[in-house]
Amino acid sequence: MKKYHIIILLSLAISFCMAQTKEPFQTKKFSGVSIKNVKVNTSGGGIKVAGNSQSNAEVRVYVKMNNWKGDASKAELEKELEKYVLEMNYENGSIVCLAKPKDPNGKNNKLSISFEVDCPKNVDVNLVTSGGGINLQNLEGNLDFKTSGGGLTVSNLKGKVNGKTSGGGIKLTDCDGMITMKTSGGGIKANNAKGNIYLATSGGGIDIDQLKGTIKAHTSGGSINSSNIKGSLDAATSGGSINLDNISGNLTAKTSGGGINADIVKLGEVLTLSTSAGNIHANLPFSEGMDLDIRGNKIKSDKLSKVSRNLNSGVVKGQVNGGGTEVKITAVSGTIYID
């Protein structure tokens, strides 16, 4: 229960990062129009877009002072807003929201302006912010969004999803489609998703669970933890270990900075495990056919005794059950354990 309370408090903190007060500074509703796109561009705040079953839309604007120690009055905020362009319009099927300083080179731009949009579920979105996080939920379409100053949180998305951040982590749940999520400044967590999924970070670890389809998970700055994957998984890191649990299908896992632990329940056409600076522990389904090419500093396995009687050589090549899946396991300076 205590852990549950902590999660709720963190969620509330994230949502309040987008606004200084609970009430929006300004609200605008759009009805009686066909909404096909949502476009938001702000230089100093977060963006949240949520789809629903309604045909109408509502935009809420939240304004706060940057580094403000306390609540600014509405009059103070309105005075500062005179230095900004703030627009919420409907143009040719699109809701267009814009917030930017009139003088982009000004040193006294004090506001953070965030947008929350409720809109029909089936829309395309194009969102850009340099100063806050982005939250998307319950949408279906071409979804393109990027920020250089916050995290990405997405859920219940379908279609083409393309999200980028250079300053925060990524959390993805319950999504389906062509999905690309990239960050250079945080970790990635993804669960219960399917499709063609590419996850990349240069500044953190990757945790994935309950994914199905063609999955790529690449990081140069952390470990990869993967469980309950079906389809095809390409996991690569140069700065950590790789842990694979309950994997079914094609698998390629490579690291130059740690060990690999792999529990394979069903093979695909190819299985490749490779590390240059650690050990490999692999649990393989010996009831299936395999063509083995295993090379390490040492090899330890009771099950491989039928394939090779000279495990101390560090090389095993042979077939299991007449051959089948190409299994290549390499540990340049470590020991390989096969169960």
- Termini separation comes to 38 Å
Strand content bin: over 45%
Mean pLDDT: 90
How many individual domains?
Answer: 1
- Gross morphology is elongated
Series of H and E elements: HEEEEHEEEEEEEEEEEEEEEEE
Total beta-strand segments: 21
Radius of gyration: 25 Å
Number of helices: 2
Task: Explain how this protein is built.
- The chain has 339 residues and is mainly β.
- It has one domain.
- Helices cover 7% and strands 60% of the residues.
- It contains two helices and 21 strands.
- The protein has a 21-stranded mixed sheet that branches.
- The radius of gyration is 25 Å and the shape is elongated.
Give descriptors for this structure.
339 residues; mainly beta; 7% helix; disordered N terminus; elongated; 60% strand
Write the layout of secondary structure elements.
Elements: H1 2-16, E1 26-30, E2 37-42, E3 47-52, E4 57-65, H2 74-81, E5 84-91, E6 94-101, E7 111-120, E8 124-129, E9 134-147, E10 152-165, E11 170-173, E12 176-183, E13 188-201, E14 206-219, E15 224-237, E16 242-255, E17 260-275, E18 280-283, E19 290-300, E20 315-320, E21 325-338
Parallel strand pairs: 2-6, 2-8, 3-7, 3-9, 8-9, 9-10, 10-11, 10-12, 11-13, 12-13, 13-14, 14-15, 15-16, 16-17, 17-18, 17-21, 18-21, 19-21
Antiparallel strand pairs: 1-4, 4-7, 5-6, 19-20
